[in-house]
Design brief:
The chain has 2 domains: 201 residues, Glycogen Phosphorylase B (Rossmann fold, 3-Layer(aba) Sandwich), CATH 3.40.50.2000; 150 residues, Rossmann fold (3-Layer(aba) Sandwich), CATH 3.40.50. It is of the alpha/beta class. The protein is built from 11 helices and 14 strands.
Length: 372
């Protein structure tokens, strides 16, 4: 089977969807598929660039087109490249802002129709449109209205044979547009690795370790949450530690400032190797994320926590979706609310739903084969 993926950008480490597409492509190549990737509007190249990108044990052929190129030339170059490869499937890794900086790519459906002819399309929705959350601004709701029209137009113009998304929340909204997407879990961006324990300092068995990994979002309930943690461990024989790993962003400072005035031990590790990140996740007792629960499934760092068997505590800022899903109750997710930290610590977590990259690749291929 031949596949060509289309995403926005392929600069390694600079675009999450590009990194995802590259790793998935590498795995598909390992199991015998012919795969290429097109970066539709890549902000890190100034001219057309065809190159092989190395990902683990695979080399992936990539075509990268600059943002500044005219739509007509872009369409012609991509069409010629696709015609040369003659893939069985085209897979659009959809993030609406990848195709227009304002999130309004009105001509995207027409462009994709021109480059594909009557070839089969797979759509992977990494993100949807604005206006899905309570208290979204009037501006966001207006932009979201037009973004929905763009997605509807796209679906009508190309031959969509299969579609996926990472979250049940997105799946629900896509079904309202007439699509029948399947759920494809996000694979961990940090594989579980084992390294000789002598390479690391010994961990304190009398500590409960909470680990933050990756970007921390603004969260209004930080102070209340930290106070509850302090109170819970005040008279316990075990103490707790917060470890921060990866690029946590500017919101890390507020956590550090508040923790500095408490007995809670903490350490900021920053960027680490994949093996070191895996070690810290494996050594922790709990993971903490600041992603709201209704989109937490699209977080690669949360997927990494789950692959390392960590119960995930969601400490978010109370952002709620306009449409609440029934029965969204992942037993390895626990949403913090004021006063329930003790309940979290009492909860027995027994199931951790996470698929590895090879498993996700197999699910993906099986879904395409069923529509062949």
């Amino acid at each position: 089977m031949k596949l060509v993926f289309i995403c926005g950008c392929l600069e390694s480490g600079k675009d999450g969807v590009g990194d995802y597409t590259r790793r998935l492509s590498g795995q598909l190549i390992q199991i015998g598929f012919d795969v290429g990737i097109i970066a539709f509007k890549d902000g890190f190249v100034s001219e057309v660039k065809e190159e092989y990108q190395q990902v683990e044990a695979s080399s992936v052929l990539c075509l990268r087109l600059p943002i500044t190129m005219s739509s007509k030339r872009r369409t012609n170059i991509i069409k010629n490249w696709i015609d040369l490869k003659n893939p069985d499937w085209l897979s659009l890794q959809f993030v609406i802002y990848s195709f227009n900086p304002k999130g309004l790519p009105f001509t995207i459906g027409r462009q994709l129709k021109k480059i594909s002819g009557n070839r089969k399309w797979h759509l992977m929705f990494h993100e949807l449109w604005l206006g899905l959350k309570e208290n979204d601004s009037l501006k966001y709701n207006i932009i979201g209205f037009f973004q929905v029209l763009i997605v509807k137009s796209l679906i009508k113009k190309i031959r969509v044979e299969e579609s996926h998304t990472h979250t049940r929340f997105y799946e629900f909204h896509l079904r309202r547009l007439g699509l029948t997407p399947n759920y494809l879990p996000l694979f961990s961006n940090i594989p579980l690795t084992k390294k000789n324990s002598k390479d690391y300092p010994p961990m304190d068995s009398d500590e409960k370790i909470f680990v933050f990994f990756g970007l921390i979002h603004p969260t209004e309930c930080i102070e209340k949450f930290i106070n509850e943690v302090v109170e819970y461990f005040r008279n316990k024989s075990t103490k707790c530690r917060f470890n921060f790993i990866g690029n946590c962003g500017s919101n890390l400072k507020k956590w550090v400032d508040l923790l500095s005035n408490t007995p809670i031990k903490f350490k900021v590790y920053g960027r680490l190797s994949t093996e070191d990140i895996s070690y810290h996740l494996h050594s922790a007792n709990f993971g903490i994320t600041t992603n709201p629960i209704f989109v937490v499934e699209k977080s690669g760092t949360v997927a990494a926590m789950r692959e390392h068997n960590l119960p995930v505590l969601i400490v978010a800022n109370g952002v709620k979706p306009k449409v609440k899903l029934e029965n969204f109750n992942e037993i390895d997710f626990f949403e913090y609310e004021e006063g329930n930290f003790e309940e979290f610590m009492r909860t027995k977590f027994s199931s951790f739903k996470s698929l590895s990259l090879p498993e996700v690749a197999n699910v993906f291929i099986d879904s395409l084969n069923k529509t062949a």
